[in-house]
Amino acid sequence: MLSKNQIKLITSLQQKKYRDLHQLFVAEGNKLISDLIAAKTKVEYLIYTKEWNTKNSIGNQVKINNRIETDAIQMKKISSLKSPSSVLAVFKMPTREVNEKNIQNSLSILLDDVQDPGNLGTIIRIADWFGIKHIFCSCNTVDLYNPKVIQATMGAISSVNVSYVDLKTMILKYKKPDFPIYGTFLEGEIIYKCELQKKGFIIMGNEGKGVSESIQKLVSNKLYIPDFPCGEAASESLNVSVATSIICSEFRRQEF
Amino acid sequence: MLSKNQIKLITSLQQKKYRDLHQLFVAEGNKLISDLIAAKTKVEYLIYTKEWNTKNSIGNQVKINNRIETDAIQMKKISSLKSPSSVLAVFKMPTREVNEKNIQNSLSILLDDVQDPGNLGTIIRIADWFGIKHIFCSCNTVDLYNPKVIQATMGAISSVNVSYVDLKTMILKYKKPDFPIYGTFLEGEIIYKCELQKKGFIIMGNEGKGVSESIQKLVSNKLYIPDFPCGEAASESLNVSVATSIICSEFRRQEF
Does the interface predicted TM-score (ipTM) exceed 0.95? Predict the structure, then answer.
């Protein structure tokens, strides 16, 4: 069973300040935990119900110091999910290495104050699918280790490097005539008709406000995902993770 | 202020059986409510805080019998959101007319047991964006009037016709040599290389299980959204709403 202090520690990790303090984060569910362990993320605690333990062998192949069997009542206490899983793990935050060469020669995604954890998690999964290795988030973007982000990544978090930076500094560092800065705007060029490059930054904005003004000015290539037939959609825009997926798909289609 | 019975009625609408019984559903927030009213959805109650009422004029141009001013405490009671909005409306479920000719001559989306309300809401918004007028859901798909679905549609619900049907019967009714049934499968053809038709059904499956076996057999055109570089993604699949957006975008791109 878990001690009072362990329960206190684990529930505190639902808050960013304690995750940062302890450099720990929580993941729940078989698949997600297996993926994170397979990606060599270090486990601090592996916590499970008796029933789970008789059927599963997650992490048996790696050394985990703290394997703790507990019951459904304690699981409910430490879980951030409505229906707690029968397995939960506390991981050490990995140190993330930025690959300069990869950034210069390929596509990266920049997120300007994306707020919804589901959106960030989904965008990480999209980046993984389309072979985008780096996501740079503005400092006001939702925290990567927010439990809802972690759950929405479905394990893709282990293969995409997510860092928090000053976007303006980042863009000014890399922007060159042959390194385009892409963004989506109502007045942009129809994306299907653009010749898209194999490298550059794709900037996606906040759910309500879009890309902030100071960042807009740095965009070199304005794109637009047209509705169909043009101008007839009732909605004014697409959800930011949906727009990201369409953009990434179109970049990759042009390479096929 | 709201009476006890009104509070009881409104909170009961968080459950499908009471929504079906009363033929009513709830929407929250300025934008969503304005869009639904603009689309001529009939309002049963419009409920708001005093503060909201001094700044807003939703629905002033239409006749609404029950306009009720309340306080933040009652709003919290009737809201299904963590942070209740300052305006909530109860709408009559519209009668939805299926347009046979539109189905025969254009694209429709079929959902086979999609469970997550956020996914259904997002798919409705995608359908609206890409001019797809009909979505047919299997009877086990999450309920259209679930508050989380309504919130995720961002108003697009008023321009897309969503009905619950037996998918197999539906497919057998329309399937013809020149009316393709599309589905996504790992062994499908790379979507970017397929010549896609302007009409047909696009079937999207359950979040965990994909398209059910009996429906799979009826698919005439198997598609695949490839990861990039092929086979290197850590994730096994894309989220169902993300996959829907990529597919719809590719269908429309080919028409541009």
Answer: no
Nearest to A203 by CA among A239, A229, A168: A168
The answer to whether residues B25 and B19 touch, using CB atoms and an 8 Å cutoff, is: yes
Q: Residue B160: which of B39, B244, B19, B241 has the closest Cα?
A: B39
Min Cα distance A168 → chain B (Å) is: 28
Residue B77 near residue B7, CB atoms below 8 Å: yes
- Element containing residue B125 per DSSP (H, E): helix B117-129
A127/chain B closest Cα distance in angstroms: 9
pLDDT in tens, chain A (256 residues): 999 999 999 999 999 999 999 999 999 998 889 889 988 899 999 999 999 999 888 777 777 888 999 999 999 999 998 889 999 999 999 888 889 999 999 999 999 999 999 999 999 999 999 999 999 999 999 999 999 999 999 888 888 999 999 999 999 999 999 999 999 998 999 999 999 999 999 999 999 899 999 999 999 999 999 999 988 888 888 999 999 999 999 999 999 8
Q: Do B228 and A131 touch (CB under 8 A)?
A: yes
Query: Considering only CB atoms, which chain B residues are within 8 Å of A192?
Result: 253, 256
Decide if A128 contacts A156 (C-beta within 8 A): yes
Mean pLDDT over residues B90-103, rounded?
91
Inspect the interface and report whether the beta carbons of A234 and B192 lie closer than 8 Å. no
SS3 B228: coil
CB atoms within 10 A of CB A152: 24
Give the residue on B whose Cα is nearest the Cα of A231: B129
User: Under a CB-based contact definition with an 8 Å cutoff, are residues A160 and A137 in contact?
Assistant: no
Q: CB A156 to CB B234 under 8 A?
A: yes
Which two tokens mark B191? 């979507």
The residues on A that touch B, with CB distances below 8 Å, are 35, 39, 118, 122, 125-126, 128-131, 154-156, 158-159, 190, 192-193, 225-229, 232-235, 238-239, 241-242, 245-246, 249-250, 252-253, 255-256
A to B CB pairs, distance under 8 Å: 110
Q: Crossing angle of helices A240-253/B117-129, nearest 10°? A: 60
Domains of chain B: residue spans and CATH: 4-92 (3.30.1330.30), 100-253 (3.40.1280.10)
Percent of chain B past pLDDT 90, that is, above it, reads 79
Cβ-based neighbour number of residue A189 at 10 Å: 12
